[in-house]
Specification:
Strand content: 35-45%
Structural class: alpha+beta
GO biological process, one term: photosynthesis
Helix content: 25-40%
CATH architecture: 3-Layer(aba) Sandwich
GO molecular function, one term: calcium ion binding
GO cellular component, one term: photosystem II oxygen evolving complex
Order of helices and strands: HEEEEEEHEEEEHE
Protein name: PsbP C-terminal domain-containing protein
Pfam families: PsbP
Length: 182
């Protein structure tokens, strides 16, 4: 893997890490219906009642409401868009992401990967766990390459509540629409 590509993957993994640490209190506004990223040409609809935080060009986070004042973790969905010119195919994308996560996350465990379809687009769906601070985290991640861009959509929850949020994660991914390149 080229150094530039490795730096990019590690940066993406760091964004996932930061998203998992942030809470709904950090979010900018309540998500109301469909979210549109004009710059990167996609729409997606977050779960009702979740908040939205724009974190920069090509990065958006949706956070679940905190369950109580003592809730120290906000389940979240993050979308990261990058250039795919250094990623020739989905398998290379998956390998690069896995290597990056192994380098960044403590106790990273890769659980599964499968080729799937998201609204007519070929994708790879992965599931993995890792430890962060005192939390054991479980995530589902979808990777898509379309028109020279990489789209990474990650749903993150505590491992013991992951199944509770999985339906919301997958329903949100199912709303993803990527504009056709001009």
């Amino acid at each position: 893997m080229r150094l530039t590509n490795r730096k990019w993957i590690i940066a993406m993994c760091t964004v996932v890490f930061i998203a998992a640490l942030s809470t709904a209190e950090d979010a900018d506004k309540a998500a109301e219906g469909q979210y549109r990223d004009e710059t990167n040409g996609f729409t997606i609809t977050p779960p009702t009642g979740w908040t939205t935080k724009q974190a920069g060009v090509g990065q958006v986070f949706f956070h679940s409401p905190l369950e109580s004042k003592t809730d120290g973790f906000s389940e979240n969905i993050n979308i990261i868009v990058g250039q795919a010119d250094k990623l020739p195919d989905l398998e290379s994308f998956k390998k690069a992401m896995t290597a990056g996560m192994e380098a960044v996350f403590e106790n990273f465990t890769f659980i599964e990967a499968a080729v799937t379809n998201v609204n007519g687009m070929k994708a790879i769906r992965t599931v993995f766990t890792f430890t962060m601070k005192k939390f054991t985290i479980k995530s589902v991640q979808y990777m898509i390459i379309k028109d020279g861009k990489s789209f990474t959509i990650t749903g993150t929850a505590l491992a013991d509540t992951y199944e509770t949020y999985l339906t919301a994660f997958e329903a949100t991914v199912g709303t993803l629409q990527i504009d056709k390149a001009e």
